[in-house]
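Sequence, structure tokens reproduced for absentees:
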Amino acid sequence: MTTSESPLLLIENCRHLATFDDQDRELEHCDILVEGPRIAAIGPKLREARSLPPDVPFVDATGHLAIPGLVNTHHHLWQVLTRVMPEAQHFTLFNWLLTNYEVWKHMDPEAFHIGALVSLSELLLSGCTTASDMQYLFPVAQPVELIDEEIRAARDLGIRFHPTRASMTLGKDDGGLPPMSLVEPPARVLADYERVIGAYHDDSDFSMLRIALAPCAPFNAKEELFIETAQVARRHGVLLHTHLAETEDENVYCEEKFGCRPLEYVCRLGWEGPDVWFAHAVQFNADEIRRCAEAGIGVAHCPSANARLGSGIAPVPQMVKAGMRVGIAVDGTSSNDCGSIMEEVRMAFMLHRASQGVDALDARGALRIATRGGADVLRNPMIGRLQEGCAADIVLVDEERLDWAGGASLDPLAALAFCGLQRPVDYTIVNGRIVVERGQLCRQTEKTLVRRANAITAALVEKERTRQRAAAAITNPG
């Protein structure tokens, strides 16, 4: 690639190109011409056809597969700092949360920033160009401007970001799950909604930053917050997001506390419409799938996290068949422990075939969920496809890689789901800018990030273990 500054970028001679456009075209030996943030043209020999100047910046994509950038529809970026924590390796969701809360309550702005840098870097290296995050952790001892740390990290890395300003207002003292040190006063949450939307939300076509609002879940956010959040979001025209129907424990909680299942509960509070998407929906039944499809509600499917915590497998093939909007998601990197969006494509592909038969989901269907599906969930028609006029969010994968040997010559697109990726994608381009080049981050150094993250993790965990030892000594002084 040449390095001169130019509004043009030519990606030359892609061996295969999967558009995921309305016709699902798959092309061979094509170029992509990028102009600023958008795709200007797709076709063969564009250098000659468009009479491009000889010094136009270019990427030699000979032997590469081109796909749209993948869309991650749900995450908790800071959780990368507590993945594989021994104390929480063998728990289901509620006990896993209770254990992690005790460490997370010690986090400060630097921890949120480094956690976001690490998680977003993993996403970029695995072919993600748009990431949504649910930042619901606001320790009361810390400044309220914590989502700002994640936004700063996203800007530093160059990833398209759809963060959700989330919140927990229902703590242990009132029958919720989190410790009170992580519970925000509702007035502070509502005020910060206004601040974050006013400071950051951009709904223009090629926006790199859009805000959504997200009470965390029925078991840690009060009823009034769900109602008031919907009112604020609709006044500003931003989307609504929450966790829902992730586990059977949540079903029991909602039935005992509210007299109904989780979906019915949030719908009673006004959370029903095309501006809503839920994370998980593992426990949805046929009637709930039909209701969501009719209302235009979307779902972020988190296959690895649901498997890791033993929550089950969301009925995604049934959702797709019913016409629901469904996207793929990594989820928090300590309920998943792997931050690769491409791994989620393969996990979804394999789990649904294992549980419902080999016809449940094919390779292209899994990839479509991760591209067009994610774009639909986030209500962003400019992403998730390679199409003239749409955002230049492009991923290139060298087909001559050991993990595809024998398969790339047969069906390289299907190899993404069948074989996965044992090393990073070769290029990730976001809004026309290269942010991963030859498998390396362009704006951060991996080892530096790893060392900073490991140091923060060690300090966080040791702080909580020291607290526990001190508490035990007081309880048992002998």
About this structure: The CA atoms of residues 290 and 379 lie 20 Å apart. The mean pLDDT is 96.
